[in-house]
Amino acid sequence: MSAAARLRRRDEGAEIIVLERSKYVSFANCGLPYYVGGEIEDPAKLLLHTPQTLKAALNLDVRINSEVTAINPGAHSVQVTDTETGEAYTLTYDHLILSPGAVAARPPADGLDSPRVHTLRTVDDALA
């Protein structure tokens, strides 16, 4: 999101589309342990921004539940699949910034395959 915000500051007229695979675009990951521990009861309190607030504040077109499944550099396009409906569409671009995210590291240790062991990196992890 910081790349999109910086681009907006550099060019107020640019069309900026952000594709986010999950339904949460901006959240306070430092609050996740407090949610899991019960100190924060409402998961909505973890959210910093929504697609609507980012549209209003920075004029960003943020599309949640949107997974890029293919990139065609020759055609300057990406294939996008809606993770809730399964519908797919093609989106063209002039410039593309990739931010594929990360996964929680799981060190090689005995017992990590237990159903009682969880990783905590995203809101979805906290809700699981």
Describe this structure in words.
- This protein is α+β, with helices and mostly antiparallel strands and 128 residues long.
- The protein has helices at 2-10, 32-36, 51-58, 123-127; strands spanning 17-19, 26-27, 47-49, 61-63, 66-72, 77-82, 88-92.
- A hairpin with a 4-residue loop joins β5 and β6.
- The model has no long low-confidence stretch (mean pLDDT 93).
- It contains 4 helices and 7 strands; from the N terminus they run αββαβαββββα.
- 21% of the residues lie in helices and 23% in strands.
- The chain has a single domain (2-98), classed as 3-Layer(bba) Sandwich (FAD/NAD(P)-binding domain), CATH 3.50.50.
- A 3-stranded antiparallel beta sheet has the order 5-6-7, with no helix packed on it. Strands 1-4 form a two-stranded parallel ribbon. The protein has a two-stranded antiparallel sheet with strand order 2-3.
- The radius of gyration is 17 Å and the shape is globular.
- The longest helix is centred in the first third of the chain and has 9 residues, at 2-10.
- The protein starts with a helix and ends with a helix.
